[in-house]
Amino acid sequence: MAILVTGGAGYIGSHTCVELLNQGFDIVVIDNFSNSKPEALERVKQLSKRRFKSYSMNILDSCGLDRIFQEHEIEAVIHFAGLKSVGESAKMPLQYYHNNLNGTLHLCRMMEKHNVRKLVFSSSATVYGHSEICPIKEHFPLTATNPYGRTKLMTEEVLRDLYQADSRWSIALLRYFNPVGAHKSGRIGEDPNGIPNNLMPYITQVAIGRQEKLTIFGDSYNTKDGTGVRDYIHVVDLARGHIKALEKIRNSTGVDAYNLGTGKGYSVLEMVAAFEQASGRNIPFSIADNRPGDVAVCYASPAKAKEILDWEAQIDIQEMCEDAWRWQLQNPNGYENEDNLVTLHARSANVI
Ligand code: WQD
After folding, report:
1. Ligand 1 centroid distance, CA of 198 (Å)
2. Measured between alpha carbons, how far is 238 from 273 in angstroms, rounded to an integer?
3. In ligand 1, which atom is closest to the CA atom of 229?
4. Angstrom distance (rounded) from CA 33 to CA 26
5. Rg (Cα) of the chain, in Å, rounded?
6. Strand partners for 31
7. How far apart are CA 332 and CA 339, in angstroms?
8. What is the pLDDT of residues 170-202, one digit of tens each?
């Protein structure tokens, strides 16, 4: 029996594949490589010293998906595949609803056809909208403030309806807070397309010389130092949360949501200081206006995942920064080939 991992070449997907393989699971990966690189899967094989089948395909390809379930004995699915930029979703909502919502409907119908009803779904803390109260608990009101968040919220509702209609389903909805860091080896990590939207990859690109300076969006929030506070969680801790969720759905039915966060909030300036400490690199920054849609403070209560999944984050902010830096230093250009590596290194060492 194998675990089907959709989007398995992505940032969280690749780290979860390493953990699955290390725990002895057999996996099958599908990915359309729209926001990831095949090289990530080669490195997953090197790190785990295990082989697995991977297919370049879109979850909307019904024939391809059918073939996967016919050719492999799939026990459960971990579903990462989807578009994930908040800003981009506001510019291209139809693509987000088609890819994220329709894609999941396609997947679930194929699972049903092949009598596979165990699913771990990649949801997001964004379903809490602008929660005024922290730490955020799973029973708090859900309200999305952008098309990306609405695709996650709607998908959660679809999956709850699915279980109501057929109680043989077993579904875990994992609400990620802010994933950062990389595998200790530095061989896999976050490799965003274009200019990073998120804080940590932007900081590491400043440190390596790909960006001139960090722009901090707002320093007059009602927080300890005026900058935004978030719950940053190491991507390996996040990956291990998926293994725990898989173990849960293997032995029970039902649908339930779990926060995957540390329960601690750090401000942007605290993250910058921690990264400078970890990397020995200075991160120049300037202050700009608040980013539209940002909340001041957002961090999780991880108590439910601890109690029910027997999972809690173990890795601290310093290690998150060290691991993120090791990945960026070893891969200045992400998974792209080694083009102009020398130039990049020289620039980051201020040689040119
Ligand atoms: C973190 C903090 C910014 C960039 C997003 C998505 C969420 C989830 C995680 C998918 C904020 C500040 C950032 C920069 C900055 N993704 N910042 N300068 O917005 O909390 O969450 O990613 O599920 O859905 O909304 O993460 O890393 O973009 O921002 O000052 O260049 O860093 O204002 O306070 P966010 P982020």
Report:
1. 5
2. 23
3. 34
4. 21
5. 20
6. 56
7. 10
8. 999 999 999 999 999 999 999 999 999 999 999
2-340: CATH, from 3.40.50.300, 1.20.1270.50, 3.40.50.720, 3.40.30.10:
3.40.50.720
* Residue nearest (by alpha carbon) to ligand 1 atom 17: 199
Structure tokens at 222: 């009602």
CA angle 289, 286, 85 (to 5 degrees): 60
Q: How far apart are CA 29 and CA 236, in angstroms?
A: 18
Of 291, 298, 317, the residue with max ligand 1 atoms within 8 A of its CB, to mutate for a pocket test, comes to: 291
Q: DSSP readout, 133-156?
A: SSSB-TTS----SSHHHHHHHHHH
Q: Which atom of ligand 1 is nearest to the CA of 291?
A: 33
Reported as a single tens digit per residue, the pLDDT across 6-61 is: 999 999 999 999 999 999 999 999 999 999 999 999 999 999 999 999 999 999 99
- 190 in Cβ contact with 11 (< 8 Å): yes
DSSP alpha helices (H): ranges in the chain? 11-22, 38-48, 62-71, 86-91, 93-96, 103-113, 147-165, 199-208, 235-250, 268-279, 303-309, 317-330, 341-348
> Where in the sequence numbering do the catalytic residues fall?
148
Interhelix angle 11-22/38-48, rounded to 10 degrees, is 20
Q: Specify whether the CB–CB gap between 307 and 185 falls below 8 A.
A: no
Contact of 173 with 128, CB cutoff 8 Å? no
Task: Tally Cβ neighbours within 10 Å of residue 190.
Answer: 23
pTM for this one?
A: 0.95
Q: Residues lining ligand 1, judged by CB closer than 6 Å?
A: 84, 86, 124, 126, 176, 178, 197-199, 202, 214-217, 228, 230, 268, 291, 294
